[in-house]
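Input.
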Amino acid sequence: MLKIEHLKKQYSNFSLDCSLEVQEGCITGLIGQNGAGKSTTFKAVLGLISADGGNITILGKDLRNFTPKDRENLGVVLSDSGFSGYLTIRDIIPVLKNLYKSFDHSFFIEQTQRFQLPTDKKIKGFSTGMKAKLKVLTAISHNAKLLILDEPTAGLDVIARDELLEMLREFMEKGENHSILISSHISSDLETLCDDIYMIHNGKVILHEDTDVLLSDYALLKVDEEQFCKMEKAFILRSKKETYGYSCLTNQKQYYRENHPKMAIEKGSIDAVITMMIRGQE
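Output.
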């Protein structure tokens, strides 16, 4: 659905070199700190900024050959974009009908009612959650094959986030050829939603893993100085000095559980993996 090969973008204080792939029927997460390169990657994929190098293939076509008609197969939410606050939902419906030949008007209206989005109220009067739901609803209402969503849950409360994620799950259930690329710094969203996760830091992908593998096989080992010196380190990805000794990140939890039964082992979460991959030492 989407393949990025060594996408390069150079700014005076930032350099991007990103490779990732979104498979058909899968939800892929791109996670990282603010300024890590998530939005730059998304904007380059959408042709909103020019790349300095690399290849981007979307829906089997080179980005350079992507036509306006091809773009109708994309549903997009960008963190810094949205509708004019002076418009109402009723105002934007004709715009969407003209933009997308496959715009599903009845589905759109049905979903605005479901999520209690008023059609005659100016968008500037919407809450943050209502604006976010409207943006995602717009992206999924024209039979898109690939959604590209940049921080769609940012700033939302727990209930609004859950409703928005439910919209995305239903989108995936509607078609086997649907796929999503989503960025977020809220790890709990990605743990429950994504099939695989890419971690980006300072413009480079530092980890790619299936979400199930990350949650089942990764762990933090809490060891003292003596244990750290004696332990097998072939399966240690990162280590970090702590007051009690060391915290170590591994992707072979079972190995240490079987061979070091007295070792303190904590289940790996996405937050823990991010922290260790960024702050730990190789």
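The chain has eleven helices and 14 strands.
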